[in-house]
Amino acid sequence: MIAAEDFCAGLTDQGFTLATGVPCSSFGGPIALLGARGDAYVPAANEGAALAIAAGAVLAGGRPYVMLQNSGLGNLVNPLTSLVQTYGLPVLTFVSLRGWPDPSTDEPQHEVMGPATRAVLEALGAPCQILRADCTDDGFREILANAAKELDARRAPFVLVERGAIGKAEPPAAGQDAGLSSAEAIRIVAETAPTAALIATTGYTGRELFAVADRPGNFYMQGSMGHASAIGLGVALTRPRQPVIVLDGDGALLMHLGTLSTIGHEAPPNLLHVVLDNQVHESTGGQCTTSSTTSFSGAATAAGYRTAVDCRTQNEVRAAVADAIAAPGPHFCAVRVGRRTGVIPPRATSAASAMDLGDRFATTLAQG
Ligand SMILES: Cc1ncc(C[n+]2csc(CCOP(=O)(O)OP(=O)(O)O)c2C)c(N)n1
Fold this sequence. Notes:
It contains 14 helices and 14 strands. By secondary structure, it is α/β, with parallel strands linked by helices. The site of thiamine diphosphate has 25 residues, from α8, α10 and β11.
């Protein structure tokens, strides 16, 4: 393992200036250190945008690098093949290897991508090296030297990072407590809308929903980050008499913010979209999102949702959900929540397989 400080120092020594990406816990150490330095790390909305930010920096004479989880590799393939490779833009990318080498030791959503990551990149002609968990400082510097040769030849090299290869660092200190806990907000939503189909975004939200209000009409996402509202839209359009509530995260909503416009355009009356905004990617270690400078309710209104409200208290959440259920939507509700404390409950897939949970949800919708 190399220390997070040595990872960052190695890149600085090679002349890298700008870092960007979407967090994976594997990069929690470097992102925390870069964040502490101020503007050296740009939190991108999704992995494709991260690569495009890096491409722009290269065009402007910079030397950037990108960090992402392999679950987000698909988001990056388009700008890799049709921007970075087409224009010969030298960008260095680090990709964590969830689900590798043994997918059975990781969560089910990494089972396909873990073994496929290297093959996908090689099929696209991208040079790949592996940063192993037992790597030394010298080994890392050799990897960087090899990458530098690829960059000089105007190629975009990838370093695939085995779990445990990079050390951790102190995560950013939690800001002022926003008051309402996400588990409490989730419990109130489920209680106020007992017959709604609930779709929970990937990460801790699904785990909390499973703990506080498991029911057959819940769909727990694991992976496919950013697509909760699109799933909710598909359900709402297909089952127009079924109330549908999406429980989103701020990082996830930002990842595919364009779906707000699709929902506003399609205007399903039976959809309520709730974002639990803690201003961080908490499930990957608390790295900041950009939501502190974005009004989600303003964006939803602009996108054509019928109503959009901001909530901070239990009563405000209860009233917002009750109002949304009583009147045609689509509705939007942004709930400012604090960062989680204490033990995070287990995933739904600790109790049943992802396929069984999905089938249970589909059967419940069919019976409704
Ligand atoms: C496409 C993709 N990129 C990155 C990840 C890694 N990841 C899992 S959960 C998560 C953070 C989600 O943040 P947010 O939606 O704000 O919810 P929170 O964790 O704060 O509850 C990230 C980055 C992923 N699963 N998929």
